[in-house]
Amino acid sequence: MKETYLGVSVSRYNYEQIIEQLEHRFERHEQSTIIAVNPEKVMTAQRDPVVKRLINEATFQIADGIGMILASKIKGGAIRSRVTGVEMMERLLRFAEEEAHPIYLYGAKADVLQKASAEIARRHPNIHIAGQTDGYEQDEEALVERIHSSGARILFIALGSPKQELWIERNLSRLPNVLLFQGVGGSFDVLSGTVKRAPKTFQKLGLEWLYRLMTNPSRWRRQLNLPKFLLRVVTEKKK
């Protein structure tokens, strides 16, 4: 159940459907990867074949951004709700707590990681945090062994894209007992309170991009990816 935009795959599944799929995949001991897809990432994929490959090879490419919803409507697709990276992580934390799947946190600055870990433990008192490592670890071999020995089944990686996806690609086969990898970008910053999410009204209307632009006007060049992306989608449809 996927749609394609400018050669980039996007999953149609909502949060509940992804969790349902993961339950079956965990039972079969199948590894899964989750990557968030937004217009900026799709436009980057047009210039960078590595980014396109990393997205398309993921198990679930979640529609993170109102631009993906608009594109689906333009093309007559079936994607009608956003699946944001930070909310997906929250759903997975619930899943991990309910099903007793140990998690591992990797990435971000040490203080941000500590605050994010504390907040996860506060929200999910029965969750098992098997381990955590900040994003400045230099010894990848030692890190992989640490994660493997921890017994973690779910690994959240906050290194930014595409660095986190490249890390997953390098090490997925070396961590056979980790059944789910999610690159979460700045989600640790949000969980720690270091970065504030847009107010609920902006979130419900799919206008988090506008809130980020209002609070950080220097992002305006990045926000141009949204109209460029939609124009390319319209042009592609006409062809």
UniProtKB/TrEMBL annotation:
<protein>
    <recommendedName>
        <fullName>N-acetylglucosaminyldiphosphoundecaprenol N-acetyl-beta-D-mannosaminyltransferase</fullName>
        <ecNumber>2.4.1.187</ecNumber>
    </recommendedName>
</protein>
<dbReference type="InterPro" id="IPR004629">
    <property type="entry name" value="WecG_TagA_CpsF"/>
</dbReference>
<dbReference type="GO" id="GO:0071555">
    <property type="term" value="P:cell wall organization"/>
</dbReference>
<keyword id="KW-0808">Transferase</keyword>
<dbReference type="GO" id="GO:0019350">
    <property type="term" value="P:teichoic acid biosynthetic process"/>
</dbReference>
<comment type="function">
    <text>Catalyzes the conversion of GlcNAc-PP-undecaprenol into ManNAc-GlcNAc-PP-undecaprenol, the first committed lipid intermediate in the de novo synthesis of teichoic acid.</text>
</comment>
<comment type="similarity">
    <text>Belongs to the glycosyltransferase 26 family. TagA/TarA subfamily.</text>
</comment>
<keyword id="KW-0961">Cell wall biogenesis/degradation</keyword>
<dbReference type="Pfam" id="PF03808">
    <property type="entry name" value="Glyco_tran_WecG"/>
</dbReference>
<dbReference type="GO" id="GO:0047244">
    <property type="term" value="F:N-acetylglucosaminyldiphosphoundecaprenol N-acetyl-beta-D-mannosaminyltransferase activity"/>
</dbReference>
<comment type="pathway">
    <text>Cell wall biogenesis; teichoic acid biosynthesis.</text>
</comment>
<keyword id="KW-0328">Glycosyltransferase</keyword>
<dbReference type="InterPro" id="IPR034714">
    <property type="entry name" value="TagA_TarA"/>
</dbReference>
<keyword id="KW-0777">Teichoic acid biosynthesis</keyword>
